[in-house]
Amino acid sequence: MNPHFVELRDLKVAFDGVTVLHGIDLTVGPGEALGLVGESGCGKSVTWLAALGLLPGKASVTGSVKVDGREICGGSRSVLEGVRGGRIAMIFQDPSSSLNPVLRIGRQITEALTLHRGLSGEAAKAEALRLMDMVGIPDARRRFDLYSHEFSGGQCQRLMIAMALAGQPDLLIADEPTTALDATIQAQILDLLIQLRAETGMATVFISHDLGAVSQVCDRVCVMYAGRIVEQGSIEQLFSEPRHPYTRGLFDAIPRIDGPRNRLIPIPGTVPNPKHLSAGCAFAPRCAHAEDACGWQRPALEHQDDGRRLACFNPVAAARSAPARQMMLEDV
């Protein structure tokens, strides 16, 4: 029996001949929570948009995407529609751009129930109200016929989660779901995702640049840079002892709100333009640990003795955890 619900193998994406995703290999097991982290533009969202066939027609997608062992990469519309919503659902960071402003919320949720589960009429309404209650919408029956602009930003995100749950998916992909929300509402949405995973058993992919949020939600983490995975391991491994210089740099740039005030250490330079990547490690121009070989030879993502995967010729030596990492690990 295949232990993985979703398998991506050598997934590549190019736009107008420019490659932006360079052979992604990752898996998501049943009930697992996987985090994808990295700076904006590193390929986190593109990975899953490509996997679900949601990129525009000008995108070239190659590789393998298997769901329960069935290949869907390059599949027909009917094959992809059989996966989207019903097996894998996706929510985005700006619910206002995903909710239809001229349709009542109740209708939008019942349409999803009709599409994915064949419910209609009073049965669909009853299930929609149950989902609204489940995600914490107060007085759901009265608010069933309201429009999206009559809800707060946090409530709109909860409604998007309710719509995603309408198809009873095995995997929920949450793409920066808390970015546009204030800190209190962010915490509530994270708690909701954790609660829903515990109650339904669905797997979760949490895409974020917020390492603190990832530490609360996920079991395992993939760190992406310039369209590649550079480090992958458990929460405990990466948060207690990050080995890739880029992963270490992400942690060193995190401020802490308690304890001594230490100067933050930014990562120098900028993310490279995908049109001008060198033959070597894409992070080498920004890396204090780079060697000559890093400039002309690209390190492969290889398994390490502790079980993680790492793409680096000169990884960071084991050291004491930085305060920011210690603080987040205590919350895991």
Automatic annotation (TrEMBL):
Its family remark reads: Belongs to the ABC transporter superfamily.
Topology versus the membrane, per the UniProt entry?
Peripheral membrane protein
Cellular location(s): Cell inner membrane
Give the domain of life. Answer: Bacteria
GO MF annotation terms: ATP binding; ATP hydrolysis activity
Q: What keyword terms does UniProt attach to this protein?
A: ATP-binding, Cell membrane, Membrane, Nucleotide-binding, Transport
SUPFAM superfamilies attached to this UniProt entry? P-loop containing nucleoside triphosphate hydrolases
ABC transporter domain sequence ranges: 6-251
- UniProt KW Ion transport keyword: no
> Can you name this protein?
ABC transporter domain-containing protein
| GO annotation, biological process | peptide transport; transmembrane transport
| InterPro entries attached to this UniProt entry | AAA+_ATPase, ABC_Ni/Peptide_Import, ABC_transporter-like_ATP-bd, ABC_transporter-like_CS, Oligopep_ABC_C, P-loop_NTPase
- The answer to whether keyword Lipid metabolism applies is no
